[in-house]
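Record 1 of the preview.
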Amino acid sequence: MAITDEILQEFKDRMHLSDEEDDNLRRILSASNKALKRMCGDYDILIDEEFKELVFERSRYVYNDALEYFNDNFLSSINNLNIAKALEEITVEGDVDATI
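->
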């Protein structure tokens, strides 16, 4: 899924960035979205606010050349999304009653 103009603008507003960096920011957001989908499952940035927040945080780390700290600092959020997606898939398949 491509990063929409709305997502880009929301991130720019949050980071107080100008329009001059749109292409770079779109690449950063797209890479973060793809990387987190590989780690957490197939979430939709337009629907899931928790996933979008994590994409924004990873993008902030990338923008500030600190990506090496992201996984350690957000490990619990990454794990929570990963577990939620796994439970969702189990429930959909009907194998287990995934009540927590």
